[in-house]
Specification:
Blueprint (H helix, E strand, L loop, with lengths): L10 H19 L7 H8 L2 E5 L8 E2 L5 E2 L1 H14 L5 E5 L5 H6 L5 E2 L7 H6 L2 E3 L4 E3 L1 E6 L13 E6 L3 H12 L4 E6 L2 H9 L5 E5 H8 L8 E3 L7 E3 L2 E3 L3 H20 L6 H4 L5 H6 L16 H8 L3 H8 L29
Parallel strand pairs: 1-4, 1-5, 9-10, 9-11
Antiparallel strand pairs: 2-3, 6-14, 7-13, 8-11, 8-12
Helix pairs in contact: 3-9, 3-12
Length: 350
C-alpha cells in the first residue's frame, strides 16, 4: 500500500488502520501453534522413548525389566534434563520396521534405537537426526569351522539379516560391486535372524559390527564364532526426533553435546559437585554456574549438571555399556573424543 495516496492520514494513524485491516487476514492464514514436544513431555511428566527390542550394549532389559545400554542411558539423560528424574521414562521396544512410523505418529517422543543416519531418512521421512552417538560399520559373523577369514571368501554364501534396515541394501551393493553371488534371508526381528543363523540356516549373519559382538553373547556357543574384521559401510547411529519441532530437537541435541563436553572437560558423575567450583569458564557454563544457557532450551540452568550426576558423561556411558567395563569390551576407536583422534565432537557452550 502507498501511503502517499492517503494524504489525510498520518503515519501513526495509517499503521493502526492497517493493523485493523490485517488482523482478520492474519487470523485466517496463521496456523494455530501446536503444542511442542517439550511442553507435552513436561505436562505428561514422562518421556516416551523408542528403543530396540533388546540389543545388549545399546538397549536391553535385565531380568528385572530395567533397561540398560548406551541408548537407554541417552533416554535417561533427556528425561533428567527435562523432568529432573532419570527414571521418568516409558521405554517402547520397536522393531526396525515400525520405528519410524512410531516417531512420525507421535507414539514416542524420541527414537534412540541404533538407527543409521542416511540422507533418505533425514529428508523424506519427516524425522530429524540430532547427532551420531555411535559410529559403526556393517560387518559379518561366521562359524570358525567353515574357515572363512575374509569377506571375499563369502562368495556364494547364504546370509541372514534384519529386514527394514540399511543392512540388506549394503549387502546388495557390496556383493554386486565385487562380482560376488549371495543368497539373503531377511527377518523382521533381529533375534529371529540371529536364531536362524545359530540354527545353521545361513553361513553368515550381518548387521552393525557392534551388534555382532553383542549378539554373539547370545549364541549357543559364542566361542565357536568369529566377527570378521572388515566392514562394508559407514553407519553413523543417531537418535532422532520428529521434523518441525526445533525446540525439542535443540533440547535432545544439546543433551548429547553436554555429555560429550563433560567428558572433554573431565567432568563426571563422581566429581560434578566439586567441578562447580572450577575456575574454568567452559566448565562453569556447562554446569550452569555462569550464564543462562538453560533458558534458551526451555530448561533451568542445572540441566547439564543433572545429566552428569545421574547418568554420567559420554565416556562413562560408553565404558559401562560397550567398553572396558562391559562384557562387549569394544574399543573406543572412531567413538573416541576428537581430542583423542576420534570423531565424537561437541560445539562449545557459550
Amino acid at each position: 500500500m502507498n501511503f502517499l495516496k492517503w494524504p489525510h492520514i498520518g503515519y501513526p494513524k495509517a499503521g493502526v488502520f492497517l493493523t485493523f485491516l490485517l488482523l482478520p487476514v492474519l487470523a485466517i492464514f496463521t496456523p494455530a501453534k501446536a503444542e511442542g514436544t517439550l511442553d507435552l513431555v513436561k505436562k505428561r511428566n514422562v518421556l516416551i522413548c523408542g528403543v530396540t527390542q533388546g540389543l545388549p550394549g545399546f538397549s536391553a532389559p535385565d531380568d528385572k525389566g530395567r533397561w540398560h545400554g548406551l541408548d537407554a542411558d541417552f533416554c535417561r539423560a533427556v528425561a533428567v534434563a527435562v523432568l529432573g528424574d532419570a527414571e521418568a521414562i516409558k521405554f517402547v521396544p520397536l522393531s526396525a520396521k515400525v520405528r519410524f512410523t512410531a516417531l512420525q505418529s507421535g507414539e514416542i517422543d524420541l527414537l534412540a534405537r541404533n538407527t543409521t543416519w542416511t540422507m533418505h531418512r533425514d529428508t523424506a521421512l519427516g524425522i530429524q537426526f540430532i547427532g551420531a552417538n555411535y559410529y559403526d560399520g556393517q560387518g559379518f559373523i561366521v562359524r570358525k569351522d567353515i574357515g572363512v577369514t575374509r569377506l571375499s571368501e563369502l562368495d556364494g554364501a547364504s546370509i541372514c539379516a534384519n529386514a527394514g534396515t540399511t543392512t540388506e541394501l549394503n549387502v546388495a551393493d557390496y556383493f554386486r560391486s565385487n562380482g560376488m553371488e549371495y543368497d539373503i534371508s531377511s527377518f523382521e526381528k533381529s533375534e529371529e535372524a540371529v536364531a536362524a543363523y545359530d540354527a545353521g540356516r545361513c553361513d553368515a549373519y550381518t548387521t552393525d559390527q557392534s551388534g555382532l559382538y553383542a549378539q554373539r553373547q547370545r549364541l549357543i556357543e559364542p566361542d565357536a564364532h568369529i566377527v570378521l574384521n572388515e566392514v562394508i559401510s559407514k553407519e553413523p547411529l543417531s537418535p532422532a526426533v520428529r521434523q518441525g519441532d526445533e525446540v525439542w530437537a535443540d533440547v535432545v541435541r544439546w543433551v548429547h553435546y553436554a555429555m560429550l563436553n563433560a567428558e572433554e572437560f573431565g567432568v563426571n558423575s563422581q566429581n560434578v559437585n566439586q567441578m562447580k567450583e572450577s575456575p574454568n569458564p567452559s566448565i562453569r557454563r556447562l554446569l550452569g554456574v555462569e550464564g543462562s544457557f538453560g533458558e534458551s532450551l526451555g530448561l533451568d540452568n542445572d540441566w547439564a549438571t543433572r545429566i552428569i550426576r545421574k547418568v554420567g558423561n559420554y565416556g562413562e556411558s560408553f565404558n559401562r555399556n560397550l567398553g572396558a567395563g562391559s562384557e562387549l569390551k569394544i574399543k573406543r576407536g572412531l567413538n573416541a573424543l576428537w581430542t583423542d583422534g576420534g570423531l565424537q565432537f561437541a560445539p562449545p557452550i557459550r
